[in-house]
Specification:
With 218 residues, the protein is mainly β. The chain has one domain: Jelly Rolls (Sandwich). Helix content is 0%, strand content 57%. The strands form four sheets. Strands 5-8-17-10-11-12-13 form a seven-stranded antiparallel β-sheet, with no helix packed on it. Strand 6 and strand 7 form a beta hairpin. The protein is globular, with a radius of gyration of 16 Å. The N terminus is likely disordered.
Length: 218
């Protein structure tokens, strides 16, 4: 079952847990946001991709509730699939499994191009403010990174939170890394999953509007 709800400010996940580690090794404040209205829920329950998804590069297929992407050598570019979502702040959750791919990312984009992404390899998770396009004068930046050890063939769950200029990643229920950059505090118009290599599997994609955390009543 899948449903997408209209435009609303969002970005990507985690609003709970311990301190985060930035690229420089310093402690960064976690995003003070929580889940609001759900904007997308995708279980890939059909035999074909829903029309809301757009394949930009590579080969993407759906089977038994799983989306699988494979890079095509002739493309000379990672396989990429995306879905339109208009938002400013958001929380996104998805499960992934390496089935031969070297990397997978969850990226956010707008009309100018790339905005930011969480990049995942079997050994490293990193947060990046992207350069919008190859001709843009706006620079990209590493916001944070953390070493991991992810075995192929094993499912993992990633939660990405983007709230204002802050961005954070939670892997398998553990707050992993965060960072901030003024350049990500913009409207977003789509999510994308780029992957390089011979196969990555994705399932249970969820996106929510990120709203200010409620103060606990006394």
């Amino acid at each position: 079952m899948r449903y997408a709800l209209p435009t609303l400010a969002l970005l990507a996940t985690i609003c709970f847990g311990s301190a985060f580690v930035q690229a420089e090794g310093t402690t960064a404040a976690k995003p003070s946001c929580e889940k609001g209205k759900q904007l997308l829920s995708e279980d890939f329950s059909g035999s074909t991709l829903d029309k809301g998804w757009t394949v930009a590069k590579g080969k993407w297929e759906v089977s038994d509730g799983v989306l699988k992407g494979v890079e095509k050598p002739e493309d000379m570019h990672p396989a990429v699939i995306g879905h339109a979502i208009e938002a400013h702040n958001l929380i996104a959750e998805f499960s992934f499994r390496f089935d031969g791919s070297k990397s997978v990312a969850f990226s956010l984009n707008n009309k100018k191009g790339h905005v930011c992404r969480v990049s995942i390899t079997p050994a490293l998770v990193s947060l990046n403010k992207d350069k919008p396009g190859k001709d843009s004068t706006e620079k990209g930046a590493m916001l944070g990174k953390e070493k991991v050890s992810l075995e192929p063939g094993t499912w993992h769950t990633m939660i990405v939170t983007v709230c204002g200029k802050q961005m954070a990643a939670n892997l398998d229920g553990k707050d992993l890394v965060s960072g901030s950059n003024d350049g990500i505090d913009v409207e977003k118009t789509s999510i994308r999953f780029p992957t390089s290599g011979t196969g990555v599997s994705i399932k249970q994609v969820r996106v929510w509007e990120a709203v200010p955390q409620k103060t606990a009543s006394k």
